[in-house]
Amino acid sequence: MIDKYKVEIFDIWQYLCQTVYEPLIRCRIDFSNPIDENILKRAVTLSLEAVPLINACFDGVSFRPRWIKKNFTGHDIVHVVKADLDTNKQIISLFSSNIDFTTEPQLKIHLIKKTDGDTACIIINHIVCDGAGFKEYLYLLSDLYTKCKNNEAIFLPEYHHRGIGHLFAGIPLAEKIGIIRSNYNAYDSSTEREQNGVTFEPGANSPFMETCVISKENLAQIKVFAKEKGATLNDMIMTAFARVFCVKTGTDKIMLPSTMNLRKYIPSGKYGIANLSTNCMCNISIQENDLFADTLKQVSEQMQQHKSNKNILKSVMLWNLAVHILPFRFLKRHYTQIVKLPVVSFTNLGIVNNELLNFKDALIENVYLTASIKSSPFFQLTASTYNDNCTLSCNIYGADCDKKWVECFLDDVRSELQF
Predict the structure, then answer these.
(1) Among candidate residues 70, 121, 76, 118, the one with its CA nearest the CA of residue 94
(2) Would you say residue 161 has pLDDT above 90?
């Protein structure tokens, strides 16, 4: 029998990373008409059967970490509020709220009721799942909402194990040993430890969540250029990010990690809503007269090497060994020495399927996913795509001048991608 409340190694990873920044993933959905709040609460309650960790609290104080089952319902998770006069400010305030892992459900939904349609700010604990897992949950939630709205029979998906064991199920023992013994070091390196971040105003702690949108027309042009160069959209955005960051910070190199989904290594194709991703690192140098295509070539070649190399599983294997060998209290005390979280990072949360994300008659205007809110010197660019529009986002704690710097940064990244 599967223990649905077993603590997995990525749970510990994400729990401990809160010593550096909050491990949360967010989704904002703007509806063009009202959503039924009671049906939404019911759908959330039903979803807890399929994703039980939402209905639990994480205990990281005990000798061994554990999940503690609770009796939360959709009424504890969905918070309905009426729109203020300054709706944008209100949405940012609610969208930037945190989750207390030890006392609250691991999911929080703020539903802002407006006269011209509602906005849902959905926040999930990264301990529960990564970006790909979050999208799976959103599809499940919208499907449950639609079935409840139609009074249809509810059949919850089969629960699959959240552990990493099935990542290695198809890899022979000799190959696993070869991966661990390889000199592959995509995540943690001495060079990365020297990576400069950004400097925000000292003591400034207002949350800012800035976005810019790459339109459908521009995105189509970017994809054409990428195809001509043998690259991907992900490579293109990483390239633009690296070039703008180097200009803004006056450096000629950047160690830039990108999130890689590891689900392709699961032979059966069956996996639960979980964390099944890791970072791969690109070492990018940019000279004064380098063209966009020159930088793109560096990024594309390195990303292709990562994608075709099972050695990318090495960091997961080593963390698995560390969790099983070292006491939890030791991991808590020395986490930042064992794992060096990237100061500057990029994550592409992928394409949100507009057919799978369907809340019956609550029509969706726009959706974007974004990550945690960073404090200086940490800085992250997040991308997500919905309905062929790509939203770039940066979330920071800073001052008004820092907000303007980020706005300019995002505009410059979009400008780099004008073809």
Answers:
(1) 121
(2) no
pTM (2 d.p.): 0.94
Over the stretch 59-79, which tens digit does the pLDDT of each residue have? 999 999 999 999 999 999 999
Q: How does residue 192 score in pLDDT terms, banded at 50, 70 and 90? A: very low
Q: Where are the alpha helices (DSSP H) in 52-130?
A: 74-77, 87-95
Contacts of 390 (CB under 8 A, 6+ apart): 213, 214, 219, 233, 237, 383, 384
Alpha-carbon distance 57 to 53, whole Å?
Answer: 8
In terms of C-beta density within 10 A (0-12 exposed, 13-18 middle, 19 or more buried), how is residue 117 classed?
Answer: middle
Helix (H) or strand (E) holding 227: helix 216-228
Q: Please check whether residue 38 is in contact with residue 149, taking contact to mean a CB–CB distance below 8 angstroms.
A: no
* Domains in the chain: ranges and CATH: 9-149 (3.30.559.10), 174-350+373-416 (3.30.559.30)
For tokens 């749970």, name the residue. 11
From CA 337, how far away is CA 383, in angstroms rounded?
29
Closest Cα partner for 336 from 9, 1, 18?
Answer: 18
Query: Tokens representing 66?
Result: 């554990």
- DSSP E strands in 114-167: the ranges are 119-125
Q: How far is CA 399 from the centre of its chain?
A: 24
Mean pLDDT, residues 253-268: 89
Taking alpha carbons only, the member of 23, 26, 27 closest to residue 10 is 23
**Local structure of residue 362 (DSSP, 8 states):** B
> Would the pLDDT of 324 be above 60?
yes
